[in-house]
Design a protein that fits this description.
175 residues, alpha+beta, 60s Ribosomal Protein L30, Chain: A, 2 domains, 5 helices, globular
Length: 175
């Protein structure tokens, strides 16, 4: 069926058809694309550094690996700092920034490191601070002390230009 017929038969699907589009290249669509940040540690498995979908950026969990050397930073403070730098690099490559983060999830190998993590974390975000969950886990990749993943919004200019803006489905008109 053509897109026009789908829209005619089911107007409620027009939003999905608009974003999904009829063509898929390498699993990417107008509604979903992978982010590759050359200056961030490479993905070490079958996952993307981040995915941009419908105006949001979803990062994979990041640890404190130096992207140039591949060495994990020493100590909780250094790992949190490097982890947040890695996240900022991926967000920049996606068309977003730390200022646009709306949700963060922090995984700690030891919850007793919470205060140290929180002190470094607070230096990277401004009010209104992102919503955040912090949990202790049994073990992290490479025996890291911290892993962080975030969800951010695209900057409005980037979102509109790429068709991922909040008003993209209505051609920029609010309804």
């Amino acid at each position: 069926m053509s897109t026009n017929i789908l829209i005619t038969l089911a107007p409620t699907l027009s939003f999905l058809v608009f974003f999904a589009g009829p063509s898929i290249v390498c699993g990417q669509t107008e509604a979903k694309r992978a982010v590759v940040a050359a200056d961030a540690p490479k993905a070490i498995g079958p996952y993307s550094q981040a995915i941009v979908a419908n105006g949001f950026v979803f990062t994979a969990g990041k640890i404190g690996t130096d992207p140039k050397t591949g060495v994990l930073a020493e100590g909780i403070e250094a790992q949190v700092e490097q982890t947040l730098k890695n996240i900022a690099t991926v967000l920049k490559a996606s068309g977003s920034s730390m200022e646009n983060v709306v949700k963060a999830t922090v995984f700690l190998a030891d919850i007793d490191d919470f205060a140290k993590m929180n002190e470094i974390y607070a230096k990277h975000f401004k009010a209104p601070f992102p919503a955040r969950s912090t949990v202790q886990v049994a073990r992290l990749p490479r025996d890291a002390k911290v892993e962080i993943e975030v969800v951010a919004i695209l900057s409005e200019a980037r979102a509109v230009r790429t068709g991922f803006g909040a008003n993209a489905a209505t051609g920029g008109r609010n309804r």
